[in-house]
Design a protein that fits this description.
By secondary structure, this protein is of the alpha+beta class. 15% of the residues lie in helices and 32% in strands. It has 3 helices and 12 strands. The longest helix has 16 residues. It is globular and about 40 Å long.
Length: 175
């Protein structure tokens, strides 16, 4: 964090380059090496059902930037609203989901559950998606983009994230 020297007021929060996280029982520990491409807060009914909460809160990051520090994950294939399915990586002991991979991006892009990070407050949502189905008692913060359904990354993502995504897509085409 950057703080004012005069009165200690927080001027802005700086997202650090390394973010560690893990499951509840601490068997699984992982590290995000770098910041996320983008952070979603998804309010679709499918995510509400999957999480048992009002929304899913995911940091999108290249899978090769996520390192398993200890333990192992159990990958569970589950259905998804697209019909293409998703893979949820869970701790085999406490069953907490630590990240998912969706068919559209495949195994190259992890959707890390922000709540499993040691410092989730450092990663506020960049966008709220599928707000047409959000719970009526959830109030969205002003100043954060919110869309009724999905969106075009080119309209919301920062230039650096779009460049990283393009590199990921190019790598996938080569394989």
């Amino acid at each position: 964090m950057i703080q004012s020297v005069a009165d200690g007021t927080i001027l802005c929060t700086v997202i650090e380059a390394i973010h560690d996280g893990g499951c509840t029982c601490r068997f699984v520990r992982f590290r995000m090496n770098g910041g996320p491409l983008f952070v979603h807060c998804c309010h679709c009914r499918w995510c509400q059902r999957e999480t048992g909460a009002a929304f899913a809160y995911n940091a999108l990051i290249e899978a090769d930037r996520v390192a398993l520090l200890s333990g192992k994950v159990e990958v569970i294939a589950t259905p998804s609203s697209s019909g293409k399915g998703q893979k949820i990586s869970r701790c085999p002991q406490c069953r907490i989901a630590v990240w998912s991979n969706y068919a559209g991006a495949g195994d190259a892009l992890n959707f890390v559950r922000v709540g499993t990070l040691d410092e989730p407050a450092l990663m506020p949502p960049d966008i709220h998606i599928y707000t047409a189905s959000k719970q009526p008692w959830v109030f969205l913060p002003p100043g954060v983009p919110a869309v009724a359904e999905y969106y075009r990354a080119s309209e919301y993502w920062p230039k650096e994230s779009l460049e990283r995504r393009a590199a990921l897509q190019a790598k996938a085409r080569v394989r």
